[in-house]
Design a protein that fits this description.
Arc Repressor Mutant, subunit A, 2 strands, disordered N terminus, HTH gntR-type domain-containing protein
């Protein structure tokens, strides 16, 4: 399939891409009035993905609050889907990860600040669960999956539809294999410990309703990641 085909039309190759597939399925509509998703078996066939990757994607969506499960009843959409994802997917295939980091530094610190002003106690609890999931996971692919969930939840809690549209474009690139490969190289054990501390600082500022601190901690976190990716690029070029 050509490289510029949007992610939601490609066969998923990693856990984040499976997550993108499920997200786009929800956004496309066509689900029953009660918002019930197909069974895991039917979803895996429909999306042509493995059951293990699908289950991890559903776990991430549940942690974000986008779906909920009822024992013996099934899985249901928990919140209205973001309608901008398809547009984002259609124009993001050729975007370079470092360009994405430049844009993230312009947008996500402000989303964190707005999140600090608008987050409820249940939002903070969900953010803390995601930070724990990132820290506790044993493989890079899962860590990126949960990391993406944390940043998406912050963007949604911020509650600004224009900024959320811009974020959706950036978030689409996180599902690409190119991003996964570069991000994995920048995630050493020492770096992972640092990222955990940075995530904790961001969420603490949000819990304290300190918009300035949330903005500053998010900027510090993204600046560090951007520098790490740049160093890797320079090593590759030398």
């Amino acid at each position: 399939m050509p490289k510029n085909v949007p992610l939601y039309l490609r066969k998923a190759e990693n856990a984040s891409e499976v997550l993108a597939q499920v997200r786009h399925l929800i956004e496309a509509g066509g689900l029953p009035a009660d918002g019930k998703l197909p069974t895991e078996r039917d979803l895996s066939v429909q999306l042509n993905v493995g059951r293990r990757g699908l289950r991890r994607a559903l776990d991430a969506l549940e942690a974000e609050g986008l779906i909920w499960r009822r024992q013996g009843k099934g899985t249901f959409i928990g919140q209205p889907p973001d309608p901008t994802g398809k547009l984002a997917a259609s124009i993001s295939a050729e975007v370079d990860p470092l360009s994405v980091m430049e844009a993230r530094l312009c947008i996500e610190p402000e989303l964190a600040a707005l999140c600090a002003l608008r987050a409820k106690s249940e939002d903070v609890a969900r953010l803390r669960v995601l930070v724990e999931r990132i820290d506790q996971t044993s493989d890079a692919e899962s860590a990126e999956l949960w990391d993406g969930s944390l940043h998406r939840l912050i963007a949604r809690i911020a509650g600004n539809p224009i900024l959320l549209t811009a974020f959706s474009l950036l978030d689409e690139v996180r599902s690409s294999q190119n991003w996964q490969d570069e991000r994995d190289r920048a995630r050493s054990p020492a770096q992972r410990q640092l990222y955990t501390r940075q995530h904790q600082s961001i969420v603490t500022a949000i819990a304290d309703q300190d918009a300035d601190a949330a903005r500053a901690h998010m900027r510090d976190h993204l600046s560090h990641l951007s520098r790490s990716l740049q160093v890797l690029r320079e090593k590759d070029a030398s």
